[in-house]
Amino acid sequence: MISKSRSVFAAFLLAGVAPAALVPGVAAAQSADQRSFDIPAQSLEAALLAYMRQSGVQVGYEPGDVAAQTSAPVSGTLSSGDALSRMLNGTGLIYRSTGGTAVRLQRLARTGDGATQLGPVRVQGQSGTVSASAPMETATGPVPGYRATLSATATRTDTAIRDVPQSIQVVPRTVIEDQAAVRLTDVVQNVSSVQLNGTAGNRAETYNIRGFVASRYAINGFALSNAAERPEAFLDLANVERVEVLKGPASVMVGLTDPGGVINIVTRAPSKTFSFNGAFQGGSFDFYRGELSVSGPLNASGTLSARATGAIQTDGGFRDQARDSERVFGAGALRWEPDALTRVDLTVDYLDSKQPFDRGLYADANGNYPHDAGNFLGERWSTNSSEKLVVGLAAQRQVVPWLMLRVTGRYTDATSFDSNGVDLQGLEADNRTLRRRVTTRTEAPEDLTMRFEALADAFTGGIEHRIMVGAEHNRGDFRFRSARANIGTIDIYEPVYGTTPVPVTRENANYDYEARNWGFYIQDQISLGEQWKALVGLRYDRAKSYTDDVFNDEVTRTDVDALTWRAGLVYQPTTAVSLYASYTRSFIPQQGQTVDLAPLDPEKGEQFEAGVKLDLIPNALSLTGAVFQITKQNVATEDPADADFSILTGEQRVRGVEFDMTGDILPGWSIIANVSYLDTEIARDNVFAVGNRLTGVPELSGRLWTSYSVRQGALKGLSAAGGIRVVDKRQIDLDNSFTIAGYHTFDASVRYALDEHWELSVNAQNLTDKFYIEGVQSESNLYPGTPRRITGTIRARF
Fold first, then answer.
1. Interhelix angle for 44-55 vs 80-87, to 10°?
2. Mean pLDDT, residues 680-708
3. In the chain, domain spans
4. How far apart are CA 89 and CA 96, in angstroms?
5. Using an 8 Å Cβ cutoff, are 67 and 23 in contact?
6. Who contacts 566 (Cβ-Cβ below 8 Å, separation ≥6)?
7. Is residue 509 helix, strand or coil?
8. What is the pLDDT of residues 354-375, one digit of tens each?
9. Confidence tier at 31 by pLDDT (50, 70, 90)
């Protein structure tokens, strides 16, 4: 326990997933964030707790400075800076910025003639002033515009993005709605070095991040099941507040992860005031979607609030002869705040979806494949369906001003069933007749993760600490059954459908897999004054697994552990510039055995990164630039003595440069853009040639989207937007047998706000109707991109 004699911080933000308000701007006199305060005169320490709760500002102080002091009353609608100044009136204390979203109290200095030397008195956030009309940004809540300045993904605390010594990009709901995005893939293409890897037969999306496959993403900081190799189902965007991408290894905070990075989905939380957001969309390929979200208080005191979100979607799709897709999604969130120091959140969401099973296009050994996005190689009766229930709980208590305790949990129960999924097996000698088989599969993942954390704030000498100590336990179970049979061939260039009847299948796999993981971690966010910040973290993981292979009558057990850590430093010569450097590590267990039946050691990753975060236009336009090297070690390769076993000789390396820009160029003119260069290679292997590029990773890629809204005159309410996406060629496999062509596509949008509540919009994707391959997994899994699609939207906001 931190001793009382040390300086303490009160009001650590009230949850890693809970919001903390953006602290006002550069000087108290310029602070324009208006809030309602009602704090009676009382002991100064009690008043500061009430202030921090009502303002979201963290206040650090020496216990001796506030002991036996009485606060002045504060009441009315004021900026956070003005409210704190009034509260401190007559106490002999002032406040100064400590960076991020915190201030610290200090005694008034006296000059030689007895006059008071005030010095720099300010309450400062990560990006300066906020207009009185702008909504207050939080690390997990709505973002005013395109540019987010706070995030909890990297640290699980409300932290200014400029204070994180690692690249992190945020795509807020504003961008999702402006682009009329309906897939997670549409959203993450706004982030540098993120590409679609594949969809596992049109079941769920996986991505390449900085050159490495990220098999799972996270929701509200919880990675999806450790027992599954991909998400349980496609993500519905109706309940998504923001999509954040933390680049590079992230095991210290997220646990078992791939080295390229992690995508974190932040869901929509209940609001203190009533709000309604609903939309109906219709467009090309018989696409229809309706969604709504309603939120507000449930009682007069506002201690109980809730949000309900739902969506229904049908999509004919652009794949010839494939069945239609159907989706029903619902989510609920309940927040209880019985007092100023306690918060409890309960969330539930449910998804039921059906879509065609689809492995995409097939390429021959010479790299030839159909250039027709509608070319479907399955059958209309080939279907996969998913049903998923997720329950989340988060509870926290500010025990004393410098200590908060938090428990969070997430339970997932899902079932995925492939009804006669058509797998693509290989070409005949004519390089166009494709052998196929039908597979019925049942996958039933179940997952429970619990976290217990203590968060403490301390001040030692001139150094301020934000310390987190935590323990995490994950239990993942995965039940898998499948049966197969061969079916008729199909011409990949001129397919003829109608293989009936579906043959009787024979079981080929039946196993139960259990994964258990325990993680223990500590993190310290250190402020060395207004210009220097540091972040250090250490984590120990113990991962066990048990596989009962009923079909082969085999039992396999693994037991591995790992110590991962990260360290980073940020230097901020001005409020508009952050220079940073960091080192991070990751680990993830892998399946397989060596020839002596020993389990394979986990894959490990490490990253060196340096970069700069700039405010090109103060409080409006930001740029992040990064250079990095990631090395993935312990890559399993085939044992040359016995192909049924593996050895750990593989190493893969990615070096890259990235730039991401978000914000406003002028009032009404917004932009989100990125570009990246990735130099990928096999550094060591006994099967593939050293120097070969990694599968499906473009050397150059980028996207630009910009929007302009007319704010006055006869055209007020009219908005026009457009963008371009560019992706370089990609290798089909680690042998680099052939390349898949790169592409560029154009998008556009026109919106018209009838008034403050109603908006009409038309969005066009792939305006030139260009054929392209969006996801590259192998020669038998090439996923074509969407042809030209026009979507109209009617949206209401109240």
1. 170
2. 95
3. 21-117, 150-266, 267-797
4. 15
5. no
6. 166, 249, 252, 535, 536, 537, 582, 583, 584, 585
7. strand
8. 999 999 999 999 999 999 999 9
9. very low
Query: Is-contact 705 673, C-beta < 8 A?
Result: yes
**What is the C-alpha separation between 231 and 234, in angstroms, rounded?**
7
Residues in the chain: 798
More confident residue, 420 or 362: 362
Please list the helix, strand and coil fractions of the chain in percent, rounded to the nearest 5, in that order.
Answer: 5, 55, 40
Nearest-CA neighbor of 631 among 557, 681, 559?
681
SS3 of 687-739: the string is: CCCCCCCCECCCCEEEEEEEEEECCCCCCCCEEEEEEEEEECCEECCCCCCCE
What CA–CA distance (Å, rounded) separates 246 from 660?
A: 13
Helix (H, G, I), strand (E, B) or coil at 44: helix
Full-model pTM: 0.85
Mean pLDDT of 14-25: 29
Half-sphere exposure of 614 (CA within 13 A, CB side): 10
For residue 191, give both structure tokens: 């982030």
**3-state SS assignment for residue 104:** strand
How far out from the chain centre does Cα 422 lie? Answer: 32
CATH domain 150-266 topology = Ferric Hydroxamate Uptake Protein; Chain A, domain 1 (2.170.130)
* Continuous segment of H or E residues that includes residue 226: none
Residue 101, pLDDT > 60, answer no
Q: Which residue has the higher pLDDT, 225 or 725?
A: 725
3-state secondary structure of 610: strand
Q: Which CATH class is domain 267-797?
A: mainly beta
CA-nearest of 10, 59, 20, 18 to 407 is 18
Is residue 388 within 8 A of residue 233, CB to CB? The reply is yes
Distance of alpha carbon 788 from alpha carbon 51, whole angstroms: 53
In order of 449, 558, 646, the CA distances from 475 in angstroms are 6, 15, 27
Distance of alpha carbon 288 from alpha carbon 240, whole angstroms = 19
- Of the chain, the percentage scoring pLDDT greater than 90 comes to 69
Whether 666 shows a pLDDT value over 70: the answer reads yes
Using 50, 70 and 90 to split pLDDT, how confident is the model at 508? very high
Residues near 33 by Cβ (< 8 Å), separated by ≥ 6? 21, 22, 24, 25, 79, 80, 130, 132, 134, 136
Q: Which residues pair with 29 in a beta bridge?
A: none
**Is the separation of the CB atoms in 126 and 101 below 8 Å?**
yes
Phi then psi for residue 162, to 5 deg, are -70, -15
Class for the domain spanning 21-117:
alpha beta
Residue 501 corresponds to which amino acid? Answer: P
Tell me the DSSP string of 309-321.
Answer: EEEEEEE--SSTT
CB 617 within 8 A of CB 664: yes
For residue 604, the model assigns a pLDDT of: 92
Q: How far apart are CA 162 and CA 624, in angstroms?
A: 9
Each residue of 464-504: pLDDT tens digit? 899 999 999 999 999 999 999 999 999 999 999 887 778 88
- Rounded CA-CA distance 332/391 in Å is 10
Q: What mean pLDDT, rounded, does the chain reach?
A: 87
Q: How far is the C-alpha of 180 from the C-alpha of 789, rounded, in Å?
A: 11
What is the rounded distance in angstroms from the CA atom of residue 750 to the CA atom of residue 87? 49
Other residues' Cβ atoms within 10 Å of the Cβ of residue 690: 11
Helix (H) or strand (E) holding 86: helix 80-87
Cis bond leading into 356, ω under 30°? no
Q: Is the confidence at residue 9, as pLDDT, over 60?
A: no
CA atoms within 13 A on the CB side of 712: 1
Could you tell me if 206 and 215 are in contact, meaning their C-beta atoms sit under 8 angstroms apart?
yes
Position 2 scores a pLDDT of 37
Cα–Cα distance for residue pair 35/329, rounded to 1 Å: 35
**Nearest to residue 334, comparing CAs of 410, 271, 273?**
271
